[in-house]
Amino acid sequence: MALTQDDLKRAVAQAAIAYVPADCIVGVGTGSTANFFIDELAKIKHKIRGAVASSEASAKRLQGHGIEVLSLNDAGDLPVYVDGADEITRHMHMVKGGGGALTREKIVAAASKKFICVCDASKLVDVLGKFPLPIEVIPMARSYIARELVKLGGQPKLREGFTTDNGNVILDVHNLQIMNPVELETTLNQLAGVVTNGLFARRGADVLLLGTPEGVKTLTA
Ligand SMILES: O=C(CO)[C@H](O)[C@H](O)COP(=O)(O)O
C-alpha cells in the first residue's frame, strides 16, 4: 500500500528522536509534523527534563502528554529544536509560518544549538516563494507594510480572522521568487512594524530529515 503524507511525517518525527540527548530540555515546533514529533517525544518523556514550545497549541499538546513545558527564560539555551517547514531548499533555507507561529519558532530556534527540520518530500524546493511568505506585523502597521511589500514585488494578503499568539496579524505574501533568501530576510526585518518574517535563512536548519517513499533521507548543512 502506498505511504500517505502522514506516514512520511510520522517517519521523520520518529527519526528526529535520535537527535534528542538524554536529560535535556527540547525545543518543539508547531504544525502537523511537529505534532507527530510531540507524540513520539511522549514515548521517551521519562528520559527528558521537559520542553520549550513555540506556540500555545504545541504547549497544550505537550502538556496533554504529561510533558513539562518550561518558558524559554527559565530553560536557557537548548541543545536541539525540532520543527517542520512549509518549504526548504538544499541550502537549508526555509519558509515557515504556515501555522502562524513563526515568531516564537524563530526565537526558540535561535536559542537552540541544532535545528532539526522534519518534512515530507513535498516541502523540498529549488527556489523558495511558491508557498506565500508569512510576515507577522503589528496591527497598526499592516497597510504601510503591505504597500512596502508591493514595492518589493509581492502581493500581500491579510490572513483573515487570524491573530498570532503575540496578538499580531499575518500578511501572506504571494508571487515572490526568492532568489536571495538571506538578503530578503534582512530587508524585511528592517521594515518598521514587522515583528518577524517567515524566512529562516540567516539561521537555517542544521539537519533536514526528509520523508520519502524510499525512507527517511538525512541532509546536512
Ligand atoms: O512553520 C510552521 C508553523 O508556523 C510549520 O512548521 C509549517 O507550517 C509546517 O507545518 P506542517 O508540518 O503542518 O506541514
TrEMBL record:
GO terms for molecular function: ribose-5-phosphate isomerase activity. InterPro entries: NagB/RpiA_transferase-like, Ribose5P_isomerase_typA_subgr, Ribose5P_isomerase_type_A. Substrate binds at residues 30-33, 83-86, 96-99, 123. Catalyzes the reversible conversion of ribose-5-phosphate to ribulose 5-phosphate. This is Ribose-5-phosphate isomerase A. The keyword Zinc does not apply. Keywords: Isomerase. CDD domains: RPI_A. It is an enzyme of class 5 (isomerase). Pathway: Carbohydrate degradation; pentose phosphate pathway; D-ribose 5-phosphate from D-ribulose 5-phosphate (non-oxidative stage): step 1/1. Belongs to the ribose 5-phosphate isomerase family. Transmembrane segments: none annotated. Gene3D superfamilies: 3.30.70.260, 3.40.50.1360. Homodimer. Its EC number is 5.3.1.6. The active site is at residue 105. One of its GO terms (cellular component) is cytosol. The keyword Chloroplast does not apply. One of its GO terms (biological process) is pentose-phosphate shunt, non-oxidative branch. It comes from the Bacteria. It catalyses: aldehydo-D-ribose 5-phosphate = D-ribulose 5-phosphate.
